[in-house]
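Hi R.,

Here's the chain you asked about this morning:
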Amino acid sequence: MAVLGSGVDTVYPPEHSDLAAALVEQGALVSEFPPGTGPRSAHFSLRNRLISGFARAVVVVEATRKSGSLITARLALEQG
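And the predicted structure, written out as tokens:
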């Protein structure tokens, strides 16, 4: 499963197109954004809420102070 920071019809970065195609066939592409929505930096923080919600556990081994990893960990704590 991949949770996107864009609409499901927009793969970002485009170099991940093959991976996205494989996930469509054997997994899932998930997004809360409507088709046609491009990637924006704010979308990735919002996306992390879904990632932490889908996960059984979130483990951060190393991260910078303002990293998305720490945002995801904080959201996981808030979600219990």
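Residues 2-79 form one domain.

Let me know if you need anything else.
M.
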